[in-house]
Design brief:
The chain contains 5 helices and no strands. The protein is an all-alpha fold and 105 residues long. It has one domain (17-22, 31-103).
């Protein structure tokens, strides 16, 4: 099976189907924002190029790039704190994602 439950394999090519499967990820905790959760899970599992493709599908599906977690942070706020995630942050910014004022923007 192809999807988020498949183990991460370094160097493996991801099909559009597999990348899109992350759109269906739902948080276990129903109080969590499903859009933020899907973005976080995709970021954690995907290489930058696949994540950029995911962002395109995410936006196309009408999802919210600026969804926040329980601390009021967007995924861009979180990713911007990671020094090796410049390509991920760039993909989000190019798609229109914003940082929150609380994150020091």
């Amino acid at each position: 099976m192809s999807g988020p439950d498949k183990p991460k394999v370094i160097g493996e090519e991801w099909s559009d189907e597999r990348v899109k499967s992350f759109l269906a990820i739902e948080p276990y905790d129903t109080a969590k924002n499903p859009d933020f959760n899907a973005l976080l899970k995709a970021y954690q599992a995907m290489r930058a190029g696949d994540f950029e493709r995911f962002i395109g599908f995410f936006v196309e599906a009408g999802r919210d790039l600026n969804a926040v977690n329980e601390n009021g942070e967007t995924i861009l706020d979180i990713i911007s704190e990671h020094r090796r995630s410049v390509d991920y942050a760039r993909a989000l910014e190019q798609a229109g994602a914003k940082r929150t004022a609380a994150a020091g923007n």
